[in-house]
Amino acid sequence: MDVFYTIEKPGTAEFKDRGSKFLAYAYPVKSADEVKECLAEVKKEHPKATHHCYAYRLGTEGTQFRAVDDGEPSGSAGKPILGQIDSKQLTDTAVVVVRYFGGTLLGVPGLINAYKMAAALVLQLVPAVQKNIESYYDLTFDYTILNEVMIVVKQQNCSVVSQELQLFCTMRIGIPRGNEELCLLRLKDIYGLEVAKVKK
What we know:
200 residues, Ribosomal Protein S5, domain 2, 11 strands, elongated
């Protein structure tokens, strides 16, 4: 697979069950630190909530993930939230579900259902986007060939991660894995351009 799915903007949704209110927040995230920031934001907004449960999955391979029950019975909150992220095959996505206790105990099956529903609702509202899995390269070149470089970058659907354009230019680009070989051939055809793969 040369593509992955994620969300590009945050969203919120609400689910109610027997007086308990579940507020779900979805965020596009790139790192565990960003997840912490989103969580802190939600906690600041809802300091009186009984629980702030969350789950996330990160990375184009989706290998980094976590599910946190925040005081709810083990496996009744974080896992169902993560399950919804996974059912949509999303990565670089975090979902925080805030619970206000309504006085009636929902029991573990009820909790699993409520957290699952809240997460499902918010992920239905936020459109999923398909992105290319990219390999990163650093380009160094003289300003006089900027035009030739940009033509290849645009034609090959590369993303420009960072650039510094002066008399001497440096640029970091992401090349979609699907056309990495072709793109590199085209770049290496440009006289005076240095291409170096970025080591992770």
